[in-house]
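Write out C-alpha cells for Cytochrome bc1 complex Rieske iron-sulfur subunit.
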Amino acid sequence: MADSSNGAPGTSVTVATPGRELDEFENPGLPPHRPRLADRDRRAEKRAERQVALLFFISVLGTLLFFAGYFFVPLDQSVERLRLQNLMLGLGTAFSMLGIGVGIVHWAKTLMPDHEITESRHEIRPERDRQDAEKIVNDVLDESGIKRRPLIRNTLLGAALLAPLPAIAIFRDLGPLPGNSLKQTMWDTGVRLTRDPSGTPIRASDVTIGSAFHVIPEGLNEIENKLEEKAKAVVLLMRLDPEELNPSPGRENWGYDGIVAYSKICTHVGCPVALYEQQTHHLLCPCHQSTFDLEQECKVIFGPAARPLPQLPIEVDDEGYLVASSDFQEPVGPSFWERG
C-alpha cells in the first residue's frame, strides 16, 4: 500500500508489504515532458492544423461523393452503372469515416496537450464537484484549442454533421413503413374460405371430423401481390367434435359445428405450421417443433413459440359455404410483428 500527499519529486513514499517492515523511498515524480515539433515550432503547429482541417474536409468530400453516387447515378439494366454506383458509395463512405477518424487522432497527437498530470484526492462535496466538473470541461476546451482554431472547428462541424447522412440514406432504401399492413389481411366479413392452391370454395359439409384443409381467401390468386398477401392470410381449417373444443368467453361463435380456422403462420419466426395430429389434435411446426393444442385455442404446449396461433372467426353463408366473420383479431406471424 502506497501513501503520498502529492506526486511531486522529492516527497517520501511509504510502502507496506505484508510480513515485512515498512520501506521508504523517494518519489521519482513524473517523467520529464518531451516537447513535440508543434510545441517548439510555430510553423509546424500551423502545418499540423492545416493537415487536421484537410482530413476533416476529406470527410466532407467523401460524404458528398456518397450522395453523388446515390442520387445522380441512375440505375438501369447495365452492370456498369451498378458497379459505378457501388464504387462511389463504398469510396464515399470510406473517405467520410476515415477522414473524420484520422483527423481526430492526428489532432490529438500533434496539437492537444500531452503532458501528464496528477492531483490529490479530496473529499466529495457536491457543489465543489460541480464546479470542478465545469472547470474540467473548460480546461478540455482550452487545451484542445478548438476555441482558437476556427479552421479545425468549422471543418470538424461540417464533417460531423454530414457523416451520419449516408447511413440515413441507406435506411431509406429499406422501403416505406409497414403501417397497419402487418395487422390486416385479405380476410373480411363474407370472404369465402377456398382450397389452397386451387381457390375452390369449401362447404361446411366438405369438412369431416379429423380432416384438415390448407385455406386461402377467395380472390387471392387474382391479385398482383399474391405471395405477400398469402404469407399473412393462409389458414388451417379443421373439424373436431364440438364437445372437445373449449372456447373462451367471447369466442363461442368463432367456429361452426366444430369447424375452426387458425393462422398457418407460426408465432415463433413465421414458419408454416403444416402438420396436424388427428388423435391428439395438435398442430406442429416442423421447423422448430412448436406445438399448439387445438382443443385449447391453439395454446403453445411445446417449443419456442411465444403465443397461440391467431384464430379466424368463421360462419356459413346462405349457400352453405364457409366464410370469414371478420379479419384476425390479432396480428399474425412472429411475435415481434405484434410489438412492432
